[in-house]
Amino acid sequence: MSGPQMNIDLSQAEYMDFRVEEGDGKLRVKVADGSVIEISVHIGAIFRIGNDPIAGIPLYNVNMGPPTVRLVSFPPKLRKVGVKPAAGQGAPTGATDAR
């Protein structure tokens, strides 16, 4: 979804304290192949940056760290031991073989 482009002056942004009211920042997704992936987001800061010029509602800028993605479970038939990844598609840094 794309809306009209706005020029926002971030020099006037106001830092906002916040607390999480619901949830733990994690989303579990079941993939069509039966795998379950957990995605976590980490909010660093929230700034109020003004109001929408048409609707008048407040606008916020949310600074987030990179998401954490974790494979929670997968069907055993998807394990392929000894198969070399395609060029440029190796395991991510820090990945371990969970046997």
What is the element layout, followed by pairings?
Blueprint: E1 14-16, E2 26-30, E3 36-40, E4 43-51, E5 58-64, E6 68-73
Antiparallel strand pairs: 1-4, 2-3, 3-6, 4-5
Task: Offer a concise description of the structure.
By secondary structure, this protein is mainly β. The protein is 0% helix and 35% strand.
What's the count of strands?
6
* Radius of gyration based on Cα positions: 20 Å
Can you tell me the overall shape?
elongated
The biggest beta sheet reads: 3 strands, antiparallel
Mean pLDDT figure: 84
Please work out how many helical segments DSSP would assign: 0
Output the strand order for the largest sheet. 1-4-5
Query: What structural category characterises the helix and strand content?
Result: mainly beta
Order of helices and strands: EEEEEE
- What is the helix content? under 10%
How far the N terminus sits from the C terminus, by CA atoms, comes to 42 Å
Strand content: 35-45%
Low-confidence stretches: none
General description of the model:
The protein has 99 residues and is mainly β. It has a domain at 19-74. It has strands at residues 14-16, 26-30, 36-40, 43-51, 58-64, 68-73. It has a three-stranded antiparallel β-sheet, with no helix packed on it. The protein is elongated and about 55 Å long. The N and C termini lie far apart (42 Å).
